[in-house]
């Protein structure tokens, strides 16, 4: 179902050595983000793990530290003859529920990173709604660009979307992002508005990533922007749905475990294959694992991408 390459890909073996690299993962105190942070840290990166509260952040760091120690003892021979050591994990306050919180989250992170590591190699927007993610990314972009100009750098911006973006409005070729009112009208009359809103947000994540890639490439930047679908993954997020017990049981039976759900994110964030074939992966949308696939047709429309970009910038001037 998920392809031969997914079965072969192993983030404990296939990410290379990330020593000296600085990685940010939002929404990483649990779920796919937690596993993404774990594998990138195991490969040697300094990982900043985003969490909404200190309690969640500290608990995640403590748990990850234990898991990294166990993973190193069990599988350390898979990397550099067992000699390479895992990186470190720190938590930072990160809330992208609103653009204003997203901006403050990014600014607080910048104060820490610029004063110490002085670089940012990979941003994984794991908690990826459109407006918050856009603001968070734009706030960190100057440091990402600065890092990308250093010799031997490999800077990437990875944003999680979902194949749900293809459903409903995503299947339409008529989508209007020219104004915020038009943005809202697209889902207000849907049978299940919250699901339609989720789909539109995931579509917008893809389109804004593609628009950002075009702008970066036009400025001769080497940064690679990738969006992806993690696959059908069982996480505790299913407990938030209506009929949570039923949904959770079905997900437990048929969906992938959480760690495997992070494989596509890890591939996009740190696989050497991506940089080796950078022109192929710039602006790409990936299905698990590492399989380049066209998103919904409307997501490829550069005029609509630009409308979305401009409307988002206007909105953020008043709300961030």
Automatic annotation (TrEMBL):
Gene Ontology molecular functions: oxidoreductase activity
Keyword list, A-Z: Oxidoreductase
The keyword Oxidoreductase appears for this protein: yes
Presence of the UniProt keyword Oxidoreductase in the record: yes
A Pfam short name: adh_short
Superkingdom of this protein's organism: Eukaryota
InterPro entries xref list: NAD(P)-bd_dom_sf, SDR_fam
Sequence similarity: Belongs to the short-chain dehydrogenases/reductases (SDR) family.
Annotated protein name in UniProt: NAD(P)-binding protein
Organism whose genome encodes this protein: Psilocybe cyanescens
């Amino acid at each position: 179902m998920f392809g031969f390459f997914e079965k072969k890909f192993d983030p404990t073996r296939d990410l290379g050595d990330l020593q000296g690299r600085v990685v940010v993962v939002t929404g990483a105190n649990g779920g796919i983000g937690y596993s993404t942070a774990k594998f990138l840290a195991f490969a040697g990166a300094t990982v900043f793990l985003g969490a909404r509260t200190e309690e969640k952040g500290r608990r995640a760091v403590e748990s990850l530290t234990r898991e990294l120690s166990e993973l190193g003892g069990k599988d350390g021979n898979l990397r550099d003859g067992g000699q390479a050591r895992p990186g470190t994990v720190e938590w930072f306050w990160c809330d992208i529920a609103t653009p204003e919180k997203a901006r403050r989250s990014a600014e607080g992170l910048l104060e820490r990173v610029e004063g110490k590591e002085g670089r940012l190699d990979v941003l994984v927007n794991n908690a990826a709604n459109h407006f918050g993610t856009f603001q968070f990314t734009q706030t960190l972009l100057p440091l990402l660009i600065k890092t990308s100009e250093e010799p031997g750098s490999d800077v990437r911006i990875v944003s999680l979307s979902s194949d749900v973006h293809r459903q409903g409005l995503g299947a339409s070729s008529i989508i209007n992002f020219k104004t915020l009112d038009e943005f809202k009208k697209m889902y207000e009359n849907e049978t299940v508005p919250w699901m339609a809103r989720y789909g539109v947000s995931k579509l917008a994540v893809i389109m804004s990533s593609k628009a950002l890639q075009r702008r970066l490439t036009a400025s001769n930047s080497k940064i690679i922007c990738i969006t992806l679908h993690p696959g059908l993954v069982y996480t505790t997020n299913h407990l938030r749905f209506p009929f949570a017990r039923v949904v959770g049981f079905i997900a437990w039976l048929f969906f992938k475990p959480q760690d495997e759900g992070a494989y596509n994110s890890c591939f996009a964030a740190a696989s050497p294959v991506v940089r080796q074939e950078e022109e192929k992966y710039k602006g790409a949308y990936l299905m698990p694992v590492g399989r380049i696939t066209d998103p919904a047709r409307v997501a490829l429309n550069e005029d609509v991408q630009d409308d979305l970009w401009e409307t988002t910038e206007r909105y953020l001037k008043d709300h961030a």
